[in-house]
Each structure stands twice: as C-alpha cells, then as structure tokens.
Design a protein that fits this description.
alpha/beta, four-stranded parallel beta sheet, 10 helices, 8 strands, about 10% strand
C-alpha cells in the first residue's frame, strides 16, 4: 500500500510539472543549421538536410527528409529557387500547416536581404540560373546578421514562453558577430582588388564583400560542366592578368581547375563554402576565419 502511495504521488508530480517541447527546425543547409543553434540554443532541435559535401541544387526528396519534415515547426532554407528540385515535394507530402510558404514557420533567408544577380528575363539557354537572384548569401556576414534577426523573431512567435531567451541569444550573437566582422574586414583588407577564377558563381557574396574580382568561370554557363573548348577560352582570357587563385567548393569537380592550374601555375584554393566544408570550419565563426585564411595563402 505504501509503495502504491509513492507511485501515485510520483505520477502526480509528472502530470503537474509543465513540459515544454523543443522547437523542431528543418534546416536545408549547414549554415542555417549552425545559425539556428546560435539563436535557439538548447531550446531547439535541429535537423540539417544537407552537408557541405553535397551540391544542394541536385538533392532528392529522400524518405529520411520526409520523416524530418513531418516533425518540423520551422523550415529554414536559402530560398531563391536553390532548393526548388526537392523542397516543394517535401512540403507538399510531409509539411504541416505551420511550415507552408508565407507562414510563421517558413523562412527563406534570401527573401530578407538584398540579392545579387537578380534577372529580369530568363530562358533555358542561360543554364542553371536563379531569376530571383543569387541564393548563396551565407558568405556575407552582414547578411547573416540580418537573417539571425528574422530567425529570432520567428522563434519568439512559435515559442512565446521562451521569447526572452531567444532575444538574449540574438543580442549576444549580434554583439560578438559585429566585432568579428570588423576584425575580419581589417584582416582581409589585403585581398581587396585580387583576381580569381571560380568554378561556379556561388562565391558572389563573399567576393563582393571582400572586394575581390571574378575574372572568369570554369563553367561555360551556370550548372554546365567545363568543356575543353571553354577551358581554352578561359586560359586565353586570363593570360597577362594577375590571377591569385582558382576557387573550388568541396562538392565541385576538380578536373577543370587542375587543368587550368597546370598550365598557369595558379593555385587551386578549396574553400569550405559552408559549415563543415573542411575540418576547421565547424561553426559559423570558424567558417569565415578559415575562408579568409585560405584566401590569404596565395598572397
């Protein structure tokens, strides 16, 4: 009888104690998963749909992604059609009413910043382009800060009980991040005016921020792999120019870069591109520090 009394008392405590579920965040890319961790802290559970070794353009709506989407309270992605090949399928088949487009649980990061390369007219002959603008905004820290503010606001709407915690996390992040931006810009001043060749135009925001010029691209058109004829044109175009580096992301094919490097002695610099892109870039701060360090090496 005594044991039964203790059992009933214990169950009463469990029922009386308030239980707050964590906010489930479905992050399409590692950078947004990392930012969600900064702002959400222990109050959120984060599922990151892709890794730094994957080209987000070419993902598929796998069963594991569908399972994660069913639990999502917040969908956090780049937008500007970057995930157009798979995110709409996930939303249609597994997304709840609170994570549909234009709801509080839907954040497309590029919607909240000024985008580069916005196009008025687009057709298939132009290759894999994004008419809404370049979606790869994660390598401009100023834009990241704007997105952090949007994220904090949405989390407070979804989880009002912990609103003060989200705003406190944002305040801490903003203070540290602003100081880091200043330090990075001082350190990277030596890069201003440098010239590079890129594989794809996914470095636009980074290069715009640091004042680095893109001389040519290894892709003849966005999303089209390098051809022998195009590489010859790139070689001819860059002759006589002081090109510092050939920039490559972890998921991009090295063949064209190696061909050009062998004929010009221009070093290939593989940048992390996002969180987890190399062993050093394991969070947002390390991503920027490692990116600047690698860009400085050829100089």
């Amino acid at each position: 009888m005594r044991k039964l009394s203790f059992l009933i008392f214990g169950l009463g405590l469990l029922i009386a104690a308030p239980v707050y579920a964590k906010v489930n965040i479905f992050a399409c890319e590692p950078e947004w998963g990392a930012l969600a961790e900064e702002i959400g802290g222990d109050l959120v559970d984060i599922y990151t749909a892709t890794s730094a070794q994957q080209d987000v353009h070419h993902m598929r709506a796998k069963p594991s992604l569908l399972a994660a989407m069913r639990k999502a309270d917040l969908v956090f992605c780049s937008g500007a059609s970057l995930e157009v090949g798979w995110l709409p399928i996930l939303i249609q088949k597994a997304g709840g009413p609170n994570v549909q487009p234009n709801t509080v649980g839907w954040i497309m990061a590029s919607d909240y910043v000024e985008k580069l390369e916005v196009m008025q007219q687009v057709d298939r002959s132009m290759g894999h382009v994004h008419p809404e603008g370049n979606p790869h905004i994660q390598l401009d820290p100023h834009r990241v800060l704007i997105v952090a503010e949007v994220l904090a606001d949405r989390l407070t709407q979804i989880d009002r009980v912990n609103a003060n915690a989200y705003f406190s996390n944002l305040e801490t992040f903003s203070s540290i991040w602003t100081a880091q931006i200043q330090a990075w810009e001082i350190k990277a001043a030596v890069l201003k005016g440098a010239k590079v060749v890129t594989y794809h135009n996914n470095w636009a925001y980074l290069l715009n921020w640091l004042g680095i010029e893109t001389v040519s691209s290894l892709e003849p058109k966005p999303g089209i792999p390098p051809t022998a004829a195009h590489l010859e044109r790139v070689l001819s175009k860059i002759k006589g120019q002081d090109v510092t580096a050939i920039l490559i992301a972890p998921f991009e094919n090295m063949d064209g870069a190696e061909w050009l490097s062998q004929r010009t002695a221009i070093p290939i610099v593989k940048l992390p591109f996002t969180v987890g892109g190399n062993p050093q870039a394991q969070n947002l701060t390390a991503l920027f520090e490692e990116t600047i360090r690698l860009l400085e090496q050829p100089l």
